[in-house]
Design goal:
disordered N terminus, 3-stranded antiparallel sheet, DNA-binding, mainly alpha, homodimer, globular
DNA sequence: CCCAGATAGGGGCATATGCCCGTTATGATT
DNA sequence: AATCATAACGGGCATATGCCCCTATCTGGG
């Protein structure tokens, strides 16, 4: 016996694939909006994580962003090269590297922040603020759920 | 004056960043589960989109997966190299390239399908089936929403 | 004090994604 | 039939991510 209604396509059934599709769609939107600053979504995310000013190690940053530590190291190179972040050996634990925003990095971040907000507004406008916020909060839960490992 | 409760971190506020974090978390889980097959999540997604057997062009595939056309072209190379998919010029429109699963590709897909289901079950078990399904359905909506462009 | 085990990164390699530009093939217009 | 706009790719380049292995440091027993 076959289902009456056509089953959803295989990729629409997969939790991970759906998440990646939605992620690509939204990332493209933010990338477009942020383009004038020369920053990409991921780069913006890194800068915003550093924006409070407290130095963080690569490991801490990776955990906060749910990123692979090595991968984050690579992603920091362009930012360091462009003078937006600084990497300093931690004096107390010389295995660690502290990442901080440079002045230039802060300027760039603040410039991007304005555009970022307009991207956020656009999403809230399309999905509805409460829907978007609830969705985001649920996804933060998924992102931080250690059982999903 | 400062806020009483610590504000959510900047990256937890961003719709796109949250989506990418959750996406990375879940993709890592699926990659782990699929590892024995030598397929990654994205590759599995491509194969599953081809699994119904009807040939699709690179463009159609890209749209279905919310992927950049050029990027998808690159992603197909490893699959073609490993003999899992075949690329043929469309006879009717020779600009187009039809992508189809090879026999080997189908075998691999079916092998991966079993593991994929266990990954799905794991997610459903952690989040709850109805929560996970609703979340996924909402995200499919986001992925397909042309207003988010 | 010394060593075994654990931890933080770096480097290399492979895939993932996207953008831009150039080429080829269609199709609609004149 | 010549023309021109459009569509589908391919190739090159840059960042995004992750994995694995190696090195430099810590750290907690002996």
């Amino acid at each position: 016996m076959r289902t009456v209604r056509p089953p959803v396509s295989a990729t629409r059934a997969c939790y991970a694939t759906t998440l990646r599709k939605a992620s690509r769609r939204l990332t493209a939107l933010y990338d477009d909006v942020l383009a004038p600053t020369g920053l990409r979504s991921t780069q913006y995310a890194i800068l915003s994580e550093l924006a409070d000013g407290e130095p963080v190690t690569i490991n801490e940053l990776a955990r906060a962003l749910v990123l692979d530590r090595s991968g984050l190291g690579h992603s920091l190179r362009p930012l360091q090269r462009d003078g937006l972040v600084r990497l300093d050996k931690d004096l107390a634990d010389r295995r660690s590297v502290n990442v901080t925003l440079t002045e230039e990095g802060r300027r760039r971040y603040e410039q991007a922040f304005v555009l970022w907000r307009s991207a956020q507004d656009r999403v809230a406008e399309v999905l509805g603020t409460s829907v978007a916020d609830e969705l985001r909060d649920q996804l933060n839960g998924v992102a931080e759920d250690d059982r999903l490992t």
